[in-house]
Amino acid sequence: MAMVDPTSRARRGVLAGACGIALLAAWPAFASGQARLQVWKSPTCGCCGDWIAHMRQAGFTVEVHDTGNAAARARLGLPARYGSCHTALIDGYVVEGHVPADDVARLLRERPKALGLAVPGMPIGSPGMDGPEYGGRKDPYDTLLVELDGGHRVFAAHR
After folding, report:
1. Domain that holds residue 17
2. Whole-angstrom Cα distance, residue 55 to residue 61?
């Protein structure tokens, strides 16, 4: 009969507990089935970097392509009228502009038949456009669900 080293068992318990804590910390990403968020942006855009930080803070894994976003937007089939300063792709959905992380998480939970989400332009107060340089200003804006036919409807209103 093999003897069990109690210190080894204790170490395994600590390791298992640490892994469990790490898994719980990342649970929002696992629960919503989030894949890697790929972002195309200008290498010099500060607000894009702030939006990426917002998404990472919300638990998203982000891969950044500093090549500009116009070609990515066109390749992904998003009409130019929904354009902003960065374009992203996650689990088959396009995410254009300063879309809040909660809206992206909801999109991934609900999985509508759509092209994706867009916050056209760069509304002040949206994630990435909410730094101290804006003095707390928050303009109202909508996150649009862009439908497969190029139309849209309001997905979330931010007031």
Report:
1. 1-31
2. 8
